[in-house]
User: Fold F-box only protein 25 from Odocoileus virginianus.
Amino acid sequence: MPFLGQDWRSPGWSWIKTEDGWKRCDAWSQELEGENSQCDIGHGIILNSEDEEIFSNEEHEYASKKRKKDHFRNDTNTQCFYRENWIYVHKESTRERHGYCTLGEAFNRLDFSSAIQDIRRFNYVVRLLQLIAKSQLTSLSGVAQKNYFNILDKIVQKVLGDHQNPRLIKDLLQDLSSTLCILIRGVGKSVLVGNINIWICRLETVLRWQQQLQNLQMTEQVDSGLTLSDLPVHMLSNILHRFSDGWDIVTLGQVTPTLFALSEDRQLWKKLCQYHFGEKQFCRHLILSEKGHVEWKLMYFALQKHYPTKEQYGDTLHFCRHCSILFWKDCRLALLLEDSGHPCTAADPDSCFTPVSPQHFIDLFKY
Assistant:
């Protein structure tokens, strides 16, 4: 049996058998080297909340060159990212395992890079990145921060390419830019991993992404086949009733007059309110029309400001309570090979699995 690591307490390296013998598998950093090109920063000016310039025009050119140099040096260092479908979540040191699993380590090792290419997992990863941007960005290690922005870059380029889910990415970048502005202005009040120039360069990159998404134009594809407007009215209504986000309904209602009329249906908004909120919440924010009818559409957006809505995802990470393992569950592979997605030793593995929401994922690593 080959020696798996430099320390008997470490999880060891990954090895592969070749014709010349056993060779160690390197991390998949080579794929990311081409993506981490130098950040092309213009002579833009970052403004604070009072619209005052942080840098003057004369000083900005020198500072911009230095940020390019620091950012390039930071991105060309050796990076250790993995593509694993499961990890063991240990919260204390043992004789077999030294240390504990952190949020940054889980973010590095789990295969989020491939998850964003899966339409079922895309919204899940975006929501997780948004929660990290709001409260956990400074808790990530330097390697995890590089991985975070590399995955975010892939998401932005994907949206710019296929024009899908731009609103989700705009909300994510808005929260991220607000967090970066607060961290840069309050430098010294919080511990930042890396040079301050790297964080300023990241902020400028986020601002450039926001501008690209703002200028995104939806191109109409000419197709001689059937379109959404060609479907019968009852099918269009059925499609709208399957939406769980009110903003998606409003956006779809702007396509055609028929869809607009269907999107204003009171029963549609009533069911949406009943799905996300409880009766006690209705009573606190009851909105009536002049005729005494309940304005369910207005109530939905009013309740959304005060209470969190239910999150719905096509696929999520799962946690095995028996093995303390966090993993991606491939339903198609499980049906074909009876594979649970990780080496579970329980008699009935399915009974031990718990879907992990983005907030639950972060809570798993709070000690």
Summary: The first strand starts at residue 15 and ends at 18. DSSP finds 16 helices and six strands in the chain. The radius of gyration is 24 Å.
